[in-house]
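Can't paste images in this forum, so I'm doing it all in text. The chain is below; anyone willing to post the predicted structure tokens underneath?
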Amino acid sequence: MAINPVKSILNKLKNNEISAEEAEKLLLNNLSESIGTATIDHARSIFKEFPEVIFAEGKELKDIIQISKKILKISQKVLITRLGTKKIESLKKEFGTKIKYNDTANIALITDKPEKLIDSNILVISAGTTDIPVAEEAIFTINSHGYDTQKIYDVGVAGISRILNHVDLIQESKIIIVVAGMEGALASVVSGLSSCPVISVPTSIGYGSSYDGLAALLGMLNSCSPGIGVVNIDNGFGAGYLACSIVRTFTHPQ
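Text version of the structure:
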């Protein structure tokens, strides 16, 4: 889990890792720090229990590196989504053994202190093989929060017996993420087999009338099975983050 940035600043000041002026500026600016092209939100760890996440698509590599270093200076880790292969290779050279990455999901985590994963009973299901990159983005996000996951891949409704083979695991899970393209029907099926929250992720997989995931999105939103929530198209990160937020409410109640 993310550490309190205020404690981190005070500890770094105590150990002469930052100056009194740097510490004062961060605290007076409500833990925000401007670097010209971006404003780093160090307070994110307090409100969200996880440091600010970098969306890499459209950002220059030098900006991604600079933002990452600023976040790591106060927090223990930084998650970076929507990376391309070239950017991942460059980040590996810059951060060495501190970086973990997933080429399938184009996502990376940089951390000074890797955590042991906690069992969370989160299950991630993909309807088809082509939905796996989005499912992997969700799993990597969950793991980055310190939680473990289970997964079932390629069990869409075209062969309904495939998902029925996993009813026991579905009913044992506390949160399920269903990733599906085409018409998105798998989310309704899984929700009908389980009493736990189901987070549905429509993907942009399908033929012309799927409208790049819009058909799956509308299908999931119109599900007649109660207990389904829906995130945006291809948003595995959002689904994973939401699952972790739910887990924290019943593992660390207020």
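The chain has eleven helices and eleven strands. The longest strand covers residues 118-126.
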